[in-house]
Amino acid sequence: MPDVLCQSPEAAWKSVLRAIRRFGAYYSVEFNDPQIAAVVQKMGGWIALCGRSSRNLQSVGGAEFRTLYSTLEGSAEPERLVGIIERDNPGGRGNVLRVSVGVVSEV
Fold it and tell me: pTM of the predicted model, to two decimals?
């Protein structure tokens, strides 16, 4: 999957919110924009981010994400964000969902 470069913080945050609503904390996800993974890890990880209230995600979480996205540097490769299924089943990767703007595929 090609990397998305120079995505706006707002578009990146919308991708994250869409993945949270669609998949939640149980599935591991991999965004095609490696900057997203770096920011989500800085915010406590995928499971913690999914556990935030809707109100927090819409206000504080969104502002925090956009600020971090504008300042942090991600890795060159997309990083998998571990969900509950993978965390609780060592040795088994579980389902990993690749997320990009408007497209989701299961690995």
Answer: 0.80
Residues 29-38, buried b or exposed e (16+ Cβ, 10 A)?
Answer: bbbbbbbbbb
81 exposed, middle or buried (CB, 10 Å; 0-12, 13-18, 19+)? buried
Query: What would the two tokens of residue 69 be?
Result: 């996205």
Stretch 69-75: mean pLDDT: 78
Q: CA-CA distances (angstroms) from residue 23 to 9, 67, 71, 95, 104? A: 21, 24, 27, 11, 10
* List of residues 6+ apart from 16 with CB closer than 8 A: 31, 36, 40, 49, 65
State the pLDDT at residue 104: 45
CB contact at 8 A, 46 and 25:
yes
Q: Give the gyration radius of the chain's Cα atoms.
A: 13
